[in-house]
UniProtKB/TrEMBL annotation:
Polar residues bias: start-end ranges: 446-477
Lineage: Eukaryota, Viridiplantae, Streptophyta, Embryophyta, Tracheophyta
Fungal lipase-type domain: residues covered: 196-333
Biased composition (Basic and acidic residues): 56-70
Protein name: Fungal lipase-type domain-containing protein
């Protein structure tokens, strides 16, 4: 019996060692040329994210193994990609930030910067009003509820909520794998659309797909009347691009058959979070086929998944909706590096302030201790005359000179020590002069430190303003400066795709600054410029407001506000008549 237990333990240990070896050493193998060519033909006849570009990227980056451009086929490939993703995620988060920065630095920086939601309603943003905005938000809310039922509820509940039958489901993949998300293609006869729902990152494998955020080449072919009119070069999220290509290979045959059967139907790709990013990239791929050139995408809480030029080229067919302080649309490698720099600077400012207060308190304590000891030594003196070389006062003077600089009126202290003490009144007079010197020294030290720190901050702010002005003069407008944002590490800034609509919580017009307005916020709908999403704006509820229930609640509030504004405008028009 013990021998059998030992044999089983040895076998388990051997199996664990073999699995660890495979995880650490295996790498995805490139697909054969014939299979790769067949996959590209099925995905896009115009070489979407062309293999030639991948070849140039791999050739220029031979030192580092290129990330996979397709989903892993074998378990060994999936394990290798998962381990590589976990290692990269660790290096970019805990490995670079540290637990102290993650636990305290971000929180302190969040408190320092305050609420920045108002930046999404600035002069560069266009507010959407009227009946057209109300109709658009109502349509988006309907599709978001369908997407939530598909992602969070059972498939039977999704069919019941949407009023679909089993024959309306063209294809459904319920089980997700690495770079193979769950999705469903539905024929909606009510709206005369083919709806393609893509689930977000819910399972562990889907989260690994979202974490595989390396930048890989992806190029989009723009068609005009069946002919190539332009080519947009750029980079995209590795895991989402692989998932989009996998969905495209599975859905294109079904869509071709159904388009011939229902020629007037449109194609809409709908997703939330990671599903929104995959859906946006998938829309680019589908539109490279002439029969799918009218495909559009509704991206809710889309992640930053592509470079500037690609994101700008999708404004006509991709609508991205962002809720309040949702952090995902601005979360990328470059923006996290910028946030880390801001947190470090904020921590340094806090340390300097703490050091200043500590140094001020320490200096005051030393001065008070010195004069207390001096006054005690005078009051306990038995002689009537203090000699110039007295062992009571001279060591204290030398010690204080070594520790701190004497104040401007310190000569009065030396003069008082050399005077003759003949009575208790003279002792009291000396003590009062010492206390006066202490107070003047403390006030002089405080004013000097405040002026020095203020001058340093003013100099830093003026230099920062000068640098920003020089950057604007050299590069033109702010939008032009953001078109090619590359960090010091060589990484490219990713942005949310297409046209961006942001729901912003604003205080009521008649509110006062001291009045709490959190529960009485007015939701405004704004079309925002893309360069606002190259910076992470921290907020206490930035994670909670990413989820679909929060989106639905905010959209319902915005619909009420739009309806109220519409009614007020109608009443004002009738009164004018």
């Amino acid at each position: 019996m013990p021998a059998a237990v030992a044999a089983a333990a040895a076998a388990a240990a051997s199996g664990g060692a073999l699995l660890l070896y495979l995880l650490l050493t295996c790498r995805p193998q490139p697909a054969p040329e014939a299979e790769r060519g067949r996959e590209e033909d099925e995905t896009s006849p115009l070489l979407s994210g062309s293999g030639a570009a991948r070849g140039r990227g791999a050739e220029s980056d031979r030192e580092e193994e290129p990330w996979p451009h397709r989903e892993p086929v074998t378990c060994c490939e999936a394990a290798a990609v998962a381990v590589r993703t976990a290692r990269r995620t660790w290096e970019l988060t805990v490995g670079r930030w540290g637990l102290h920065g993650l636990a305290f630095g971000i929180r302190r920086h969040m408190k320092r910067q305050g609420n920045l939601q108002h930046e999404y309603s600035g002069n560069d943003c266009r507010q959407l009003r009227g009946h057209q905005a109300h109709a658009e938000v109502s349509s988006l809310l309907e599709y978001l509820k369908l997407c939530m039922f598909f992602s969070k509820k059972s498939f039977s509940a999704f069919l019941k909520f949407g009023g679909y039958k089993q024959e309306d489901i063209l294809i459904h993949k319920a089980r997700s794998r690495l770079m193979q998300p769950s999705f469903a293609l539905v024929c909606d006869k009510r709206t005369k659309c083919f709806l393609l729902f893509i689930r977000g990152a819910i399972s562990t494998k889907e989260r690994l797909t979202a974490a595989t955020a390396a930048e890989v080449p992806f190029h989009h072919i723009i068609l005009s009347e069946g002919q190539i009119s332009n080519v947009v070069l750029g980079y995209a999220h590795c895991g989402m691009l692989a998932g989009a290509r996998w969905i495209a290979r599975l859905t294109i045959p079904h869509l071709r058959n159904k388009i011939q059967e229902f020629p007037g139907y449109q194609i809409k790709v709908i997703g939330h979070s990671m599903g929104a990013g995959i859906g946006a990239i998938l829309t680019y791929i589908l539109r490279e086929h002439y029969e799918f050139s009218s495909c559009s995408c509704l991206a809710f809480a889309p992640p930053a998944c592509m470079t500037w030029e690609l994101a700008e080229s999708g404004k006509e067919f991709i609508t991205s909706l962002v809720n309040r302080n949702d952090v995902v649309p601005s979360f990328s490698k470059v923006s996290t590096e910028s946030l880390r720099s801001e947190v470090l600077v904020s921590s340094k400012l806090d340390d300097v302030q703490d050091h200043f207060h500590h140094g001020l308190f320490s200096s005051i304590s030393q001065r008070v201790a010195f004069f207390r000891s001096h006054m005690l030594s005078i009051s306990h003196s038995t002689g009537k005359i203090t000699d110039h070389d007295s062992s009571i006062s001279e060591p204290l003077l030398k010690d204080s000179a070594d520790r701190i600089q004497p104040p401007a009126n310190a000569h009065s202290i030396d003069r008082s020590r050399q005077q003759v003490v003949t009575s208790e009144e003279r002792v009291t007079l000396v003590n009062s002069e010492d206390v006066t010197c202490v107070m003047s020294a403390v006030s002089g030290f405080t004013s000097q430190e405040d002026s020095d720190s203020t001058g340093a901050l003013d100099t830093q702010q003026s230099s920062t303003t000068t640098n920003e002005g020089e950057a604007l003069n050299q590069n033109g407008t702010r939008n032009d400066k953001q078109k090619e944002p590359i960090s010091a590490s060589g990484s490219r800034q990713f942005f949310p795709p297409g046209r961006i609509i942001h729901m912003v919580g604003q205080p009521p017009p008649d509110s006062t600054p001291d009045e709490g307005t959190i529960n009485n916020e007015v939701i405004g709908i704004y079309e925002t410029p893309r360069d606002l999403y190259c910076k992470i704006r921290l907020a206490p509820n930035m994670i909670k407001e990413h989820y679909m229930p929060s989106y639905i609640s905010t959209m319902e509030s915005s619909l009420e506000q739009l309806q109220k504004d519409d009614d007020n405008s109608v009443c004002a028009a009738s009164n004018d008549l």
